[in-house]
Amino acid sequence: PVPERGGPSTLTFPELRQQLSQHHAVAEGYEAQTVIRWGDPVLDGAPPYDPMAQTAAGQARQFGYNCDYLDFWPLPAGSRNSDHGLLCVNHEYTNTNLMFAGIGEGRAARGRTTAAQAAVEIEAHGMSVVEVKREGGTWRSVPGGAMNRRITMNTPMRISGPAAGHARLRTNADATGTRVLGTLNNCAGGNTPWGTVITAEENFNNYFGGAAATTGAEAATYRRYGIIAEPSYAWFRHFERFNLDREPNEPNRFGWVVEYDPYDPTSVPVKRTALGRFKHEGATHAIGSDGRVAFYMGDDERFEYLYKFVTARPFNPNDRAANRDLMDEGTLYVAKFEERGRMRWLALTHGEGPLNAANGFHSQADVVIEARRAADLLGATPMDRPEDVETNKVNGRVYVMLTNNSRRTAQQAGPGNPRANNVHGHVLEVIPPGAGTGRVDHAATEARWEVFIAAGKPGVDPGTQYHRATSDQGWLSCPDNIAFDSKGRAWIATDGAPEFAGIADGIWAADTSGHGRGLTRCFYQAPTGAEVCGPCFTPDDRTLFLAIQHPGEDTGSTYENPSTRWPDFEAGRPPRPSVIAIVKRDGGEIGS
Ligand code: FEO
Ligand code: CA
Ligand code: CA
Ligand code: CA
């Protein structure tokens, strides 16, 4: 039986019963509103979504595909307005098989795109900045809003930091190695204390191909990042910049953290190379007690690492311009987990330890371009796929979502990743010195760690860890994203639960302190095939935005016969990745 209330939990919503459905579901007393869908107009002149006639020019002005990270910036800027703002949205990748008629099923569909279809996909990547408004209790987007923006794979960007201008970043189109078009596979993200958005380039390897993958001068680095001759996307067959045989350095210009100003649609986004190059999932900031800013970041692949970057200079709250290039100077660290709940942050600094010319590192540029190999040499701890990392401002702890790793053997189980065959993943807490005191030392090179929850079904899956009052609906699988409300309670989004646990992906909420700590409760369930991304609260905690990514991504699902037509449920329309807003029917705070 599902308890009506959460026992010792402070969360009062009635829990959902776990089920799989073409429709989504939210706890009783709450309402889910569709705010914007793939193909909806963002910029003036955008054509309406037409399932049979998407064009690259149209897509460049419409909402992109597979929404992931979400960030809400109030309007006017600097206010805490929770009914009107800009929603910043990542568009991670495309489900080609659900975008175009007659292209077949699964990933193989990507390889069959024409140049015109690939051009649509290119414009469907990147980000959207879109004005949103709550009127009469209902959220809607404002097409053509004055600050609306599309950032795509064709948007000019600047490269800064230690790798800027390096020979390994130069191409035929950019002899300076400092200018690049676009951003790829932007998964989770974060923001800065000076009011910019940061977005993480994750699986950039999928887009580059050609024989040089195995024969070129960069072949060893390609291999470390998963770049192969025949990737799933066909872009490299249609456009030279994705062809390694023509542009061997183009992939070195991806895999970075990108910063942009949400309030200035004319600003040039910047790739901040000091934060290292890997399959960036997200980046969360935390202001340390000495004013320096730490950015915690995951590299999402089995046995990859957890990183943090600490700025050299402190954040200046009184002078926004003084912070503009704070992310260009500082120290990149990688995590090493140890016994008895201890951990250390190891500096990835050129000239220190093995990071020298004898090992192929001739400058800090080489260290950041090959951050993974540098971390290998330092003996960093291989993790169970570090997805989103988020700071809980209430308790000063940093939460790491380790989504799963079925390949970890019993011999490989150890500090930070204690479970072999970790099919369901876990959530780790990194506890910097001073956490809970209000003077947290995020720049420190030592910290402690604890497992917050270990996912899976209690009593069935070995090694699960929850509050003992967790209901038989309250367990979860494959934690991926997390957000905290202003009370410091965790809202966990999952990706992979249908495949690994036979339950829908969704949102589970839990206290992080007190008698209800670790008592997860099921709040929202996604439609068939979708994961839940980007959980994001308005400043007043009365709206929770969610990105519902890849609805209909199931085996056998096609444009003609998708496993769901969410959210439109109209004949002839495929499913559409969409941002939804969850509000409480009585207007109260979410989870109150
Ligand atoms: Fe794009 Fe690691 O999820
Ligand atoms: Ca995703
Ligand atoms: Ca993710
Ligand atoms: Ca994931």
Automatic annotation (TrEMBL):
**Pfam families named in the record:** PhoX (PF05787)
Polar residues bias: start-end ranges: 555-564
Q: Which region ranges are annotated with the description Disordered?
A: 552-575
Q: What's the protein called, per UniProt?
A: dTDP-glucose 4,6-dehydratase
Origin species, per record, is Falsiroseomonas stagni DSM 19981
